[in-house]
Design a protein that fits this description.
Number of strands: 8
Number of helices: 10
Radius of gyration: 20 Å
Distance between the termini: 34 Å
Helix content: 25-40%
Largest sheet: 5 strands, parallel
CATH superfamily of the largest domain: Glycogen Phosphorylase B
CATH class of the largest domain: Alpha Beta
Order of helices and strands: EHHEHEHEHEHHHEHEEH
């Protein structure tokens, strides 16, 4: 088996998709697994021991960059392609990269529609993003089982070197791609104020300027925009 797994974004989904290589390897120990993701997600997958080769798509390169990536992927001779993202870009890769067997993760759009618009929840409970990513592999005779909690693999020097100068702290991540996914910043502020004996480390991206309100708290160590994905993972670890 020479497998290409496609998952471009975002942080949480890519992290959960990193269960796929290990799961496949449990059935096919000799499989060669390639993983394609967005360039800004590189840090999440770069040290994964079960990924033979990591492919990156830079959004700045546009459609030409996507076509160049597809051309390079076609030179690899994959036997299997698993589209774990299921959007237009991943469809083009899935459609144009030659492989004997192809698989796509269902989007379950109708279930999402019912939940968002009518609060009718038809998703399997408890909800598991890992389950949704692993279960489709049953089509390739890999019996489903829920894998271990997703793991990020860090290089040892990074594990020893972080930006936090103290030992005991609570990490909070008030950011999310969309405002409606965020707990209101005033609630985070109140949480910090109500626990003055606790040191809070704030992790967020460079575009998350709304976290500046947390700087007024002496027990908040605000690292917004100062860490990449691997630094953040090391701090959490």
């Amino acid at each position: 088996m020479k497998l290409l797994v496609i998952r471009f974004s975002s942080i949480g989904d890519v992290t959960q998709a990193l269960s796929i290589p290990s799961f496949v390897k449990s059935y096919h120990p000799d499989a060669e697994i390639h993983f394609v993701t967005r360039a800004d997600m590189e840090g999440l997958a770069i040290h994964h021991p079960q990924i033979s080769k990591l492919w990156l798509l830079d959004r700045k390169t546009g459609f030409k960059g996507l076509l160049d990536l597809i051309k390079n992927l076609n030179s690899e001779g994959f036997t299997h392609v698993y589209d774990a993202h299921n959007n237009l870009r991943s469809f083009l890769i899935r459609a144009l990269v030659k492989a004997d067997k192809k698989l796509v993760r269902p989007m379950m759009r109708f279930k999402r529609f019912l939940l968002i618009n009518f609060q009718i929840n038809k998703f399997e409970k408890p909800f598991s993003g890992q389950r949704d990513l692993i279960k489709p592999l049953e089509a390739w005779n890999m019996k489903f089982r829920l894998p271990d909690t997703p793991q990020l693999f860090l290089d040892k020097p990074l594990q020893k070197k972080t930006l936090v100068p103290f030992q005991d702290y609570v990490v909070i991540v008030p950011s999310a791609s969309y405002e409606l996914k965020r707990w209101p910043i005033e609630n985070w502020n109140k949480l910090i104020k109500d626990n003055p004996e606790t040191t809070f480390v704030v992790l967020a991206g460079p575009g998350d300027t709304f976290t500046e309100v947390l700087n007024e708290n002496k027990n908040a160590f605000n690292l917004t925009g100062k860490t990449d994905l691997l630094n953040s993972a090391a701090i959490i670890e």
